[in-house]
């Protein structure tokens, strides 16, 4: 008996040495699997580790892998070993798990037991800080391989590796939390800078609008007023003079309508995103030389129009800027817009066959920088790149969850520089 104990102690020390130096729980466990196999021969061995709230568990396998480790986490309530994970039984010992009802119940994720023919099984808990944090699972293909003595040895192995695995998992969670916090701070700072740039751009645009209205529209209206005053003084107006005045008034109305439409996209409000994008697309290329062919397709079943109004407006502004950039700078022969969706995501893609855009800096100022800022403010993902390896051109993809999880800052839907003067894109 002392000789057996010395062998066990030697093997447990070997397991301890195998753990040393590893910083990943999966790698650390796989390093111990061979040493555990010298004590308890097995065809399959895995480690189930509970999440912080105890509702889910991850699986680390050594040797061949099953579908247990394909997903990041599984619900504990569907685990064949849930009673060990819940602490309701001190262990599970089975001569043939294929026909053992303890592993099979409605909703059980038991497919790997049959696929891998895991008949003889030992399941013992991993404990740390007085609580069950997971389970060690040891299996063989043959029937009736294990005894209660093997259960005791398995528990000693589990007790040895549990604190180390627990420490590694806690360290990994702390590292992920630090990274998430750092990324969140970076996002907040980027949004702060972006919103500041957006506000500055809007203020510049207001000043430009005021100058345009003063220098052009108001000047035109003042001239019309002088002409009307002159005609009143003459007491009579010729048909040609009235025609000139009518043309002047129509020009002022057209200019004001462009400004108002750009500031408040009424087509979007009345008819939805698809029609608003199509209207802007057609208007943008109407005076292009040489002509630009356009095509818009909507396979999203109109799901964009179920989004909150600020989100929908922000999407429209991003697509509007993408179309404007293509018309102004890329000299394309064709522009395509696609609206598509899945059960959870809406995608809008603007593609042109023009000169391409080169490397894109998301932090850049101007239209592209504003697109990235607006996308970040509504929680959308924006990617701008080459349309194709051979065809060149530019592809703008904006993707957003169909159920946004947070409120949209008002600035995200506001008008940006370059969006008011629609005629500039023509």
TrEMBL record:
Keywords: ATP-binding, Kinase, Nucleotide-binding, Phosphoprotein, Transferase, Two-component regulatory system. It holds the Pfam family HisKA_3. Its EC number is 2.7.13.3. GO terms for molecular function: kinase activity. The keyword Kinase applies. It comes from the Bacteria. This is histidine kinase. It comes from Mesorhizobium cantuariense.
């Amino acid at each position: 008996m002392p000789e057996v104990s010395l062998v066990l102690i030697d093997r447990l020390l070997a397991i301890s040495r195998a753990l040393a130096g590893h910083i990943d729980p999966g790698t650390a466990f796989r390093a111990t699997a061979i040493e555990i196999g010298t004590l308890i021969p097995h065809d399959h061995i895995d480690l189930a580790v509970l999440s912080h709230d105890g509702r889910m568990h991850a699986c680390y396998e050594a040797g061949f892998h099953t579908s247990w480790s394909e997903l990041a986490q599984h619900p504990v309530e569907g685990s064949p070993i849930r009673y060990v994970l819940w602490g309701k039984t001190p262990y599970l010992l089975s001569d043939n798990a294929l026909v053992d009802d303890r592993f099979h119940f409605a909703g059980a994720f038991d497919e790997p037991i049959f696929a891998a023919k895991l008949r003889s099984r030992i399941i013992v808990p991993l404990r740390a800080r007085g609580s069950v944090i997971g389970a060690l699972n040891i299996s063989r293909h043959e029937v009736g391989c294990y005894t209660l003595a093997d259960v005791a040895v398995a528990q000693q192995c589990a007790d040895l590796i549990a604190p180390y695995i627990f420490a590694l998992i806690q360290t990994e969670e702390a590292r992920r939390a630090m990274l998430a916090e750092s990324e969140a701070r970076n996002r907040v700072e980027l949004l702060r800078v972006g919103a500041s740039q957006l506000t500055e751009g809007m203020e510049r645009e207001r000043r430009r609008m005021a100058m345009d209205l003063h220098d052009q529209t108001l000047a035109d209206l003042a001239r019309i007023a002088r002409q009307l005053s002159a005609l009143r003084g003459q007491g009579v107006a010729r048909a040609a003079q009235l025609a000139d005045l009518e043309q002047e008034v129509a020009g002022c109305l057209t200019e004001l309508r462009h400004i108002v439409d750009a500031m408040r996209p009424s087509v979007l409000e009345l008819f939805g995103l698809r029609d608003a994008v199509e209207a802007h697309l057609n208007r943008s290329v109407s005076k292009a030389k040489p002509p630009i062919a356009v095509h818009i397709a909507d396979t999203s079943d109109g799901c964009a129009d179920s989004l909150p109004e600020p989100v929908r407006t922000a999407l429209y502004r991003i697509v509007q800027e993408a179309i404007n950039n293509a018309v102004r700078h890329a000299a394309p022969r064709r522009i395509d817009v696609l609206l598509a969706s899945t059960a959870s995501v809406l995608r809008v893609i603007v593609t042109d066959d023009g000169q391409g855009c080169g490397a894109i800096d998301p932090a850049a100022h101007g239209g592209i920088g504003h697109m990235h800022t607006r996308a970040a403010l509504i929680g959308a993902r924006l990617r701008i790149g080459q349309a194709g390896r051979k065809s060149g051109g530019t592809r703008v993809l904006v993707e957003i969850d169909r159920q946004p999880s947070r409120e949209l800052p008002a600035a995200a839907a506001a008008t940006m520089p370059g969006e008011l003067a629609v005629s500039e894109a023509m």
